[in-house]
Amino acid sequence: MSKRPAGDVARSTVRPKGEMGGGGPMRTFLRTADGVPVESVYDPGAAVYEGFADPLAASSSPCRDLVFVIAHGFTGDVDRPHVRRVAGVLRHHGAVLTFSFRGHGRSGGRSTVGDKEVLDLAAAVERARRLGHARVVTVGFSMGGSVVLRHAALRPGSVDAVVSVSAPARWYYRGTAPMRRLHWLVTRPEGRLVGRYGLRTRIHHRDWDPVPLSPVRAVPRIAPTPLLIVHGDRDGYFPLDHPRTLAEAAGGHADLWIEAGMGHAEHAADDALVARIADWAVSAAG
């Protein structure tokens, strides 16, 4: 975790692939409603730097008012290569704000594996609005996919479109070997040690109390905000009944993409898919 005070702003000294241009990305520590410092990285997008001789032209471009807020999967963070790659594709369609969930990377606190993380996403969305973006699209992967669903349900009207990739439909699922390993990681003291020192993820030891709203119960509350559910037919964590259950719960309001040959979350979402997601979001967000 950074020792820089929450709310302090600094220019990034590292520019991962996909974050090229002008002044580079801006790193900021946000403060959540429950006081956790969350590291974020803001990139104003390629339109600001590319193809505009006049800065005023960039500020008035069609994609300038849109920002993608990316919610990574469990054990991810803003500097993971797969998160930076997704951000690198999305920045050609709008601004991008990435952040590390609590307990991940240099953010404070400990992971609650999808519960209090809604507060982290809320802080990032509020940051995007303060930066002047009229259209905000949340894009979540796996755990982050469940978080964007719950955030949109609990804070209606706070975003303009929602994309959930590889998300579970229900809690406590143990039907696959990867999910059984994840439950060991989260629930056992030795598992949490592996998470802390092997995966750079600090996991809270307390059980959920109360159990948060499940993704499948959240989905019906999202309408009329546009919703896209994306899932791979080779997802080793959550089989296809999860996205289909989510889409059914949406009552015809959600678009469902079942991607042939795709595995799980950010690692499996190739650049072409991310670009298609961006095109959908630009259109759906108005």
Automatic annotation (TrEMBL):
<dbReference type="Pfam" id="PF00561">
    <property type="entry name" value="Abhydrolase_1"/>
</dbReference>
<dbReference type="InterPro" id="IPR029058">
    <property type="entry name" value="AB_hydrolase_fold"/>
</dbReference>
<dbReference type="GO" id="GO:0016787">
    <property type="term" value="F:hydrolase activity"/>
</dbReference>
<keyword id="KW-0378">Hydrolase</keyword>
<feature type="region of interest" description="Disordered">
    <location>
        <begin position="1"/>
        <end position="28"/>
    </location>
</feature>
<feature type="domain" description="AB hydrolase-1">
    <location>
        <begin position="67"/>
        <end position="167"/>
    </location>
</feature>
<protein>
    <submittedName>
        <fullName>Alpha/beta hydrolase</fullName>
    </submittedName>
</protein>
<dbReference type="InterPro" id="IPR050261">
    <property type="entry name" value="FrsA_esterase"/>
</dbReference>
<dbReference type="InterPro" id="IPR000073">
    <property type="entry name" value="AB_hydrolase_1"/>
</dbReference>
<comment type="similarity">
    <text>Belongs to the AB hydrolase superfamily. FUS2 hydrolase family.</text>
</comment>
